[in-house]
Write a structure and sequence with these properties.
The structure holds 3 protein chains of 3 kinds. Chain A is mainly alpha-helical. Chain A has one domain: Up-down Bundle (Methane Monooxygenase Hydroxylase, Chain G, domain 1), CATH 1.20.58. In chain A, helix 1 runs antiparallel to helix 2 and helix 4 packs antiparallel against helix 5. By secondary structure, chain B is an all-alpha fold. Chain B is globular and about 90 Å long. The N and C termini of chain B lie far apart (62 Å). By secondary structure, chain C is an alpha/beta fold. The longest helix of chain C is centred in the middle third of the chain and has 14 residues. The two termini of chain C are 31 Å apart. In chain C, a hairpin with a 2-residue loop joins strand 9 and strand 10. Chain C is built from 10 helices and 10 strands. Classes of the chains: A mainly alpha, B mainly alpha, C alpha/beta. Chains in contact: A-C, B-C. The interface between B and C is medium-sized, with 22 and 27 residues.
Chain lengths: 221, 292, 260
């Protein structure tokens, strides 16, 4: 294998490692909330440091590859997209920290019917699928992730409205509800990040930006 | 297990290398020594005779003290005439062969002719010239018979030199010229010939030197007499040259000082060739500086 | 540089349709078709021996000088067949200038090199020649470097200067098209950068076709890139597309260095 291919493989494996850490953090975050576990929340914070370290390392790898290899075509797209995917993964970690930090503030529960858990699970599935799409070069899966974002947004909206209602009806809920609003906002952001990753995967595979399609009049050709 | 051979440079190879170098040096030095001895001997014998008078007096037929003025003149005149005759033909043929003839059969046949002509012994040319010009044309022993026959000797050499010099012109220069819209003739005249000039010039001087020293041809075509007038530019008169004179006085002459005259003549010829060669070096360098 | 969003506004200058080329028995180009737009830089890339240089030389018919060749198909400049009987090859070569791989100035003075072309076409007047020479040298970004030594031999210049002189020499006969056959392959990076700058300036008024082994060079200077392989056209497209999203697998492999 060529040296360049070896370096590309290292980059790819680095991103897979980051994705693995981010997924672990999401699992831990969900558990921290369901179990009201301060120690699991603490583990999330520790994992985040790992993710930050990987971000610095992979940024450097990408810059080096661009500077030294003058990549073109697929290689260029893969490296340019990696430069964007890496911060997305790092941001997922940050959002997990924000959510985990509030694990003990939001009890006793005020929300009904496990809708918060559902939001967490759906978001987690999106992250998982976007990473699988990246690893498996699977455009179909990436498109599914982008579509799934709508359902997460919907879920976010309905929980948000429910929390508003609770706050209006019972002032004692206001503190917990406002923390919960931040929590669901962070889940929704993580889902957006997964969407962005999926869009980058599409760019790598198809060479056309999947973002802001309303601006790309001729993108339909 | 197979052991790897140790790679050691062989001492015998080095020794052989040294020996060969020494041998080549010895040969070269030996050759230069012979050359110097030879030229030295000629110049030493000729030196006492060499003076302005020797160069500017008319020759004597029976008495001692004759000069070589007309022979010197005839030598130069014949070389110039023969080159004047052979240069256009040789150049033209050379240009044709390198630029126009293509790569076919005709060219191979033509080249064979030229090479045969170049290899023809001069005595054969001499007899041919005598039969054709002296006898058939009825021009007797004369400058024109000599010049024309001498030209036959020059043409193949000039042709070959021109052809080789033109073939050595880099293809990218010619392409550059064509690329600017030059025709073939324009390219040959403005790029190829100037580039080939030094090569052709060198060939020309070698030819001139050879013509200058040629005797067999001129004995049979230009004769062994000189005109009583000086300078005589007519081409119908006989024109004995230096080399013919040298041969004549030593083999057939009745001169009491034949030995001295011959030595002096030989020395003059050697010096003239030396000057000619130096002149060419100088010209060559001047052209090179201007064009490369 | 031209990008995929803006439509091409320049007319087609050189058009090639189903072109074949062989040296004796050996087929060099086989069924090439492509259009080259005016006032654009078109780069031709491909592995050695793919016929790029040969293709270039077909436009000004310079290959005819050296050897027996057969050209089939259709090559046009401004809609006129280059190989039609009766076309004036000399005029064709004036309109389509060429710069070669190795700088090849004539062993003459700088001035005489540039004046060579105009003189061929009968310009004799000294003042007119002076003006043409200065103009060509300025266009080739060489005037300031040589204006005080126009009488000096061109072969004493640096490689980069020699190549710009060759460009000036080609420009002096006001060509419409400039063919460049790996013009920087013998130059150092600084001289190369100057030539590349020059190419971008020159395309204002000229159609440029450049053959290059250096893919980054093709990416830097050209609007269109064509990939040749074994005498065939693999893909031709806007350079931006070729280097980010080529359509053909072979193009992808070639520009990412995974070829063969």
């Amino acid at each position: 294998m060529r040296q360049f291919d070896t370096e590309l493989k290292e980059l790819r494996e680095g991103i897979m490692t980051m994705a693995g850490i981010a997924e672990d953090m999401i699992d831990l975050t969900i558990q921290a909330h369901s179990e009201r576990s301060a120690s699991k929340a603490e583990q999330v914070m520790q994992q985040d440091r790992l993710l930050d370290e990987w971000e610095l390392r992979l940024d450097q790898v990408c810059i080096d590859l661009l500077a030294l290899r003058a990549p073109a075509a697929t290689d260029l797209r893969r490296i340019a997209s990696s430069l964007k995917i890496v911060p997305e993964l790092e941001r997922i970690g940050d959002h997990c920290c924000n959510i985990a930090r509030r694990a003990t503030y939001v009890h006793p529960p005020i929300l009904s019917s496990g809708s918060l858990e559902r939001l967490g699970q759906e978001t987690r599935a999106m992250v998982r699928q976007s990473v699988d799409a990246f690893v498996g070069n699977d455009a179909g899966l990436a498109r599914m992730v982008i579509q799934a974002d709508d359902s997460v947004d919907e879920l976010y909206g309905s929980i948000y409205r429910e929390l508003l209602r609770l706050m209006m009806s019972d002032p004692l809920c206001i503190e917990r509800a406002s923390h919960l609003i931040l929590v669901i906002k962070n889940w929704e952001r993580i889902a957006d990040q997964a969407t962005n990753i999926a869009e980058e995967v599409l760019f790598i595979l198809e060479g056309r930006s999947a973002k802001h399609t309303y601006l790309q009049g001729d993108a339909a050709e | 297990m197979q052991t790897r051979p140790v790679l050691r440079s062989s001492t015998t190879a080095k020794v052989v290398d040294r020996l060969m170098l020494g041998l080549l040096w010895t040969l070269a030095l030996g050759f230069i020594a012979v050359l110097l001895l030879f030229v030295g001997a000629i110049l030493k014998q000729g030196w006492p005779v060499l003076n302005l008078g020797f160069l500017t007096r008319m020759p004597e037929t029976l008495e001692a003290g004759g000069g070589i003025k007309p022979q010197l003149f005839n030598s130069i005149y014949l070389v110039v005439l023969s080159l004047g005759l052979s240069l256009p033909v040789g150049l033209g043929a050379g240009i044709y062969m390198s630029e126009y003839a293509g790569r076919g059969r005709a060219l191979r046949f033509f080249r064979l002719c030229i090479e045969t002509l170049a290899a023809t012994p001069s005595i054969v040319l001499a007899l041919f010239g005598m039969i054709l010009f002296v006898q058939t044309m009825g021009w007797s022993f004369s400058i024109r018979s000599g010049a024309l026959t001498l030209a036959l000797l020059n043409i193949p050499v000039i042709t070959r030199v021109t052809e080789l010099s033109l073939l050595a012109v880099p293809r990218d220069l010619k392409e550059a010229s064509y690329g600017l819209g030059a025709t073939k003739l324009q390219t040959i005249l403005k790029v190829s010939l100037p580039y080939a000039a030094t090569g052709i010039l060198t060939g020309l001087v070698l030819t001139a030197g050879r013509a200058f020293g040629e005797s067999a041809i001129l004995v049979f075509t230009a004769g062994t007499n000189v005109s009583a007038q000086f300078p005589d530019f007519r081409w119908t008169v006989p024109g004995e040259t230096l080399s013919v004179h040298l041969w004549y006085v030593t083999s057939d002459g009745t001169l009491p000082d034949a030995r001295e005259i011959a030595a002096g003549t030989a020395a003059v010829m050697i010096l003239a060739l030396l000057i000619l060669n130096l002149l060419v070096r100088f010209l060559d360098r001047a052209i090179r500086r201007r064009t490369r | 540089m031209l990008n995929p969003k803006t439509p091409e506004t320049k007319p087609v200058k050189l058009s090639v349709k189903d072109m074949h080329f062989s040296y004796g028995e050996k087929k060099v180009l086989d069924g090439l078709s492509l259009d080259i737009h005016a006032e654009r830089v078109t780069a031709i890339i491909g592995p050695s021996g793919c016929g790029k240089s040969t293709f270039l030389k077909c436009f000004n018919r310079i290959h005819e000088v050296a050897s027996e060749v057969k050209v089939g198909g259709d090559m046009q400049i401004d809609g006129i067949d280059i190989y039609r009987g009766g076309i004036d090859v000399v005029d064709l070569r004036r309109r389509i200038g060429m710069v070669f791989q190795k700088p090849n100035p004539f062993p003459k003075s700088i001035y005489e090199n540039v004046a060579y072309g105009p003189r061929l076409f009968g310009v004799k007047d000294r003042a007119a020649l002076d003006e043409l020479v200065e103009d060509a040298l300025r266009k080739a970004a060489l005037w300031d470097e040589v204006k005080d030594r126009l009488k000096e031999s061109a072969t004493g210049m640096s490689g980069g200067q020699q190549q710009r002189l060759c460009i000036a020499r080609a420009l002096a006969v006001s060509p419409e098209v400039l063919l460049m056959d790996e013009p920087c392959s013998a130059l150092d990076p600084i001289a190369t950068a100057k030539i590349e700058e020059l190419i971008i300036e020159l395309k204002e008024h000229l159609t440029i076709v450049i053959v290059t082994h250096n893919m980054q060079q093709a990416a830097r200077v050209s609007d269109y890139t064509a990939l040749f392989w074994l005498g065939r056209l693999v893909e031709m497209d806007l350079t931006e597309r070729i280097f980010t999203t080529p359509r053909e697998r072979m193009t992808e492999d070639y520009i990412t260095g995974r070829f063969g």
